[in-house]
Structure formats: C-alpha cells, structure tokens
Amino acid sequence: GTDPTFEPMTYLDGSTFAGLDIDLGNAMAERLGFKVKWTKVAFGDIIPGVADHKIDFSMTSMFDKAKRQEKIDFVDYLYVGASIVVPKGTGDVGGLAGLCGRRVGVQAGTVYVDMTERQRQQCPAGAPLTVVTVEGDPIAEVAAGRAGAALNDYPIAVFDAEKNPALEISGRQLEAVPYGIGIAKDRKGLSKAFQAAFYLIVDDGTYDKLLAKWKLPEGSLKTGGLNGGV
C-alpha cells in the first residue's frame, strides 16, 4: 500500500508506480522471491490497512513515530526531516515560530497536523497561525497563493521547489526522524524478512545506487532498525 502523492518518494508515472519507495520495495521483494502488487491507498487509511491485513506492508514516506508504533511496526530505511516551503523571495522565516501570522498548508493524517497545532497554540493573539488541511500535496496551496507556507517531508519539498521557480525552501530541515516500512504487529516474521532483505540491498550496493538515482544520499540510514523512531 502506498499513497502516490509524494514525488520523488512515491508517485504515479501515468499508471505506473514510481519513486524511491517503489524502487526500494521492489528491490527488497526481489531478494525475498516475490513481486509487489502496488496498491493506491489514501494516507490516512495506510495504518488501518496494514493493521487489518488489507495490505501486507506499506512504503509511503511514513515517519516512524512512537504513537504510530502502538498500531503497527516499522522497519526503518531512510532518515528525513521536515521542510517549510514558502513563496520565492520570502527567505528563512525562522522555523516553526516563523509560521505565526501565516496560513500554513499541511496534509491530512500526517505528523504536520499535530506539529502545526502545537505551534498554533504558542502563537501570539496578534499573529495567529491558520492551518489549511488538504488531502494532497500541501505545497500546491503555496503555489496557488492560498497559503503563505507549507510543511512537507524534505525530499518532497526539495523536489517541488526545484520544479517550481516560484517556491523556495525556508531554512534547514526540522525534527528529522526515520521513514519506516509499515507491517502489522502480529506479522513478526514479515518484519524480520524485510530487515534481512534491507541488509542485502545495503551490502550489495543497491541501496546507495537508488539513493543516488533519486538524489537523496543525505537520507542514508543503514540500520534497518525496528521501531527506531520516537
């Protein structure tokens, strides 16, 4: 299961699933001797789908967070932070505190909903933070002029900013945590199999080659840890 709205991690190229998540998932599946049937699933339905065995595993740019670990397990495979995207010429707004007084786009069901809510409560009355929650890429809200900033994962934010010269990244990455492959808690054998397959693609160089292909070598995380996020 994947939500293909996170280019370059997972997206649809016509009717074909593509991206780093897809390439990594296919490479690990090959080592395990099976082929992945990729299924489009809304981001908010990923965890219930994994937990209820409607999908066998997820690779969908999902942060491994302690709250999510209560429902499913994660095999970690990439280290990624959050980025703030703003209109070109805005410059560094100063992190989350700089979102006060702005309309900020976030995607429903992501960690950014909670992140912006926490920040909203800390903003002064004269500079309220207005959260704009959308189902797709929140950066599109900035591009369309409906928001003054958006939060998204670093790889997606960089890709969108490079693609659209009217956008830029504000400041450095925030709160970097691992991405994880989501697997049901009662399928420990499958989690161990993915860990083993991950180590194989690390050892034979496939992992580094795929990170280079998608221009994300700075996210390298070769531990393959289980539930390593906090």
Overview of this protein structure:
By secondary structure, the protein is α/β, with parallel strands linked by helices. Helix content is 33%, strand content 25%. The protein is built from 8 helices and 8 strands. The strands form 2 sheets. The protein has a 5-stranded mixed β-sheet with strand order 6-5-7-4-8. α4 (111-122) links the parallel β5 and β6. The chain is globular, with a radius of gyration of 18 Å. It starts with a strand and ends in a 17-residue tail after the last helix.
Keywords:
230 residues; 5-stranded mixed sheet; 3-stranded antiparallel sheet
Rg (CA only): 18 Å
> Mean of residue pLDDT?
94
**Main pleated-sheet profile:** 5 strands, mixed
Would you report the number of β strands? 8
| Element pattern in H and E | EEEHHHEEHEHEHEHH
> Termini separation (Å)?
23 Å
Tally of helical segments: 8
Strand fraction: 25-35%
* Helical residue percent band: 25-40%
Q: What does the overall shape look like?
A: globular
Helices and strands: which structural class? alpha/beta
Low-confidence stretches: none
* Spatial order of the strands forming the largest sheet: 6-5-7-4-8
